[in-house]
Amino acid sequence: MARKAPAEDPAQDDPKVALPKHAAAGLPALLHTTTMATAQMGAARSVRTLLKLNQPDGFDCPGCAWPEPDHTHTAEFCENGAKAVAEEATLRRIGPEFFAEHSVADLADRSGYWLGQQGRLTTPMLLDQDATHYTPIGWDAALTLVADELKALDTPNAAAFYTSGRTSNEAAFAFQLFARQLGTNNLPDCSNMCHESSGSALTETIGIGKGSVSLKDLYQADLIIVAGQNPGTNHPRMLSALERAKRAGARIVSVNPLPEAGLERFRNPQNARGLVGAGTKLTDLFLQIRLGGDLALFRALNLLLLKAERKEPGTVLDHAFIAEHCHGFAEFAADAETTDWAAVLAATGLPEGQIRELAALALESKRIVVCWAMGLTQHKHAVPTIREVVNFLLLRGNIGRPGAGVCPVRGHSNVQGDRTMGIFERPGKPFLDALGKEFRFEPPREHGLDVVDTVRGMRDGKVRVFFAMGGNFVSATPDTAVTEAAMRRCRLTVHVSTKLNRSHVVTGARALILPTLGRTDRDRQSSGPQQVTVEDSMGMVHASRGALRPPADDLLSETAIVCGLARRTLGPGNTVPWEDFTADYGNLRDRIARVVPGFEDFNDRIKQPGGFALPHGPRDTRAFPTATGKANFTVNPLTAPEVPAGRLLLQTLRSHDQYNTTIYGLDDRYRGITDGRRVVLLHPDDAAEHGLAEGDHTDLVSEWTDGSTRRAPHFRVVHYPTTRGCAAAYYPETNVLVPLDSTADTSNTPTSKSVVIRFAEDSGAEAVGP
Ligand code: SF4
């Protein structure tokens, strides 16, 4: 029975604004967790469910990819993990009656927040050509419809298979195998929009596109630099690890345009000191950098390290490591000497003394970890920036030894695992060879489409079928109008989802919603109860078992959907035992073990509580599988975003009540904003310079080097202590400002952290879309 909408759809443009907080978590987080969980799940179900979250015999958090510690507490989750679980384990349901009541046009007028609040999807739904409403369709008919559309394509490359980071290893492996059996490498994923720049830079420099540290390394570090990252909101349990490191003597340096509460002070709700006391001060040194200034900062640090070595030869650099394990040092060092201090200071906006202070900390520290997230990856020069971070670590041998290394902190819970399973539009030859050998077929070798190229393909009529395994593609991608128009050009769009979102109401000529099991749900197949596996941000693989009764008895798992579709599309005689895979995911894991290095004895090793670590050459043995066979120093010319006079640089970011594109609520508690999202955070002096007062409304206009502009209407001005010249506003509301063609060099990641803007007269609330 469909429920009436439990929440209204507020305008979101007139929030209440208070001063930002200077500490994260503590009692308020506990209260919010309780309120949010009981509103969605009721008290008893909340307790039962949350006590299984991130436990060895429970299920993995569907939130971020932060790893679990070895010895878990009874309550091993954060406020945002609890919100993610509450959204999934909600008692709210939407079935055929809901879709009969709401036309697609009606739903397309609602906000993403409202759509997400309606509840779990229970029934496969079809939007037929020229229909106004979704109507129910049986599972067999739905999968046959998709199979028929795929078989009717002129080429398999006219289909794209998108994966969001929630998808389990088992489902992801089956999904990529299906796409490749069909004949395409069109496997875009959410990683294309977040850490692709990290993957590109790390693969080139250390030979593997993953971080090189474990939690233990963080605990052993002398210095942890957190650059372009807001763990308090996006990876909250990282704060516990930072607290532990701090108590063991580490110094923490934050590099960010905004001061963030979580990095200032952490009130750990696991102990009395955090719950009712002052908590732990985390950041020792805060560098309030300009957006996009990180490359300049790390260049300057590298120059200072080289100079210190010249002054006291043999005391600064790790010469033995550089000689034995690195390539390209001389060229790098010669270029670093040309670093122009005036350019560094202009790009970073930092006082020279602060940069020298950080260099002094680095010189005092034997073991250094650098953590980063979207603040580094979503700039045009993101890849060289991360390469320069690697240079910084290589100089003193800070890769491949305890307490040191690179730590790109991943967003969605299995985004790293999906890539390990082969969700990649540019797979390597060894992976394709192994896949082809195991399943006796010739996989396609031509590179496929990433996210940006998929949108281009749909826009140009080359991609006709779009199939999404989770996620909210149209809200995650830039250039909203272009993306939505592209989606509407498809013959068929299909979304495998747990909840309603905007991608279900911006459709191709026909559209399907295929509801699926979530992490919290019991997954029973013909051989019995199933478990799935995920890989966290630090390369640990572990099992996840949901325990709740699914929202509908005939709901299919992601794996069952993929295998059912593959059988119908590829027909009899296909070399893959799809039915066996669905019956028992252990059969899938046996095959993964034979194809993907590091997964030997997969089924046995996931029985270990906490799972197992994947091999990582640079971390484990200082083996660097790069083109040179060594860790590569690189030359990265100093570049930074250019901002014309009278303009500001805008970054898009998340609120505290948001995880990626999912909006759990309308508050950003740590930043002092409640009951609204259409805000632009501005330094008071910048606001004054542009004639804007706190509380005014303005349109944001982005300007691009090709002369094009884009406009986002009606944002409330909020005075905020951000770096001068650098503004911030939430996505997906500001995705419209970023053109499809503005992407990072090499990685093709949209440049959502360096948007040149000006202000324009407020178009008013009526100009705001859904
Ligand atoms: S830190 Fe991330 S993985 Fe852990 S509970 Fe919070 S959202 Fe979930």
Short key terms for the protein model shown above:
770 residues; six-stranded mixed β-sheet; alpha/beta; 16% strand
Structure summarized in a few sentences:
With 770 residues, the protein is an alpha/beta fold. The protein has 32 helices and 33 strands. The strands form 10 sheets. It has a 6-stranded mixed β-sheet, sandwiched between helices. It has a 6-stranded mixed beta barrel with strand order 25-32-29-31-30-33. The protein has a 5-stranded parallel β-sheet with strand order 12-9-8-14-15, sandwiched between helices.
Average pLDDT metric: 94
Query: Biggest sheet: strands, sense, closure?
Result: 6 strands, mixed
Strand order of the largest sheet: 6-5-18-17-16-7
Low-pLDDT residue intervals, each spanning 5 or more residues: 1-6
Tally of helical runs: 32
**Content-based structural category:** alpha/beta
Tell me what portion of residues adopts beta-strand conformation. Answer: 15-25%
Rg from alpha-carbon coordinates: 25 Å
Distance between the termini: 26 Å
- Could you tell me the number of beta strands? 33
Shape: globular
Bound small molecules, by name, code or SMILES, are:
iron/sulfur cluster
The helix content, as a percent range, equals: 25-40%
Cofactor: Mo-bis(molybdopterin guanine dinucleotide); [4Fe-4S] cluster
Domain Molybdopterin dinucleotide-binding: 648-755
InterPro entries: Asp_de-COase-like_dom_sf (IPR009010), MopB_CT_YdeP (IPR037951), MoPterin_dinucl-bd_dom (IPR006657), Mopterin_OxRdtase (IPR006656), Mopterin_OxRdtse_a_bac (IPR010046), Prok_molybdopt-oxidoreductase (IPR050123), YdeP_MopB (IPR041953)
Domain Molybdopterin oxidoreductase: 120-495
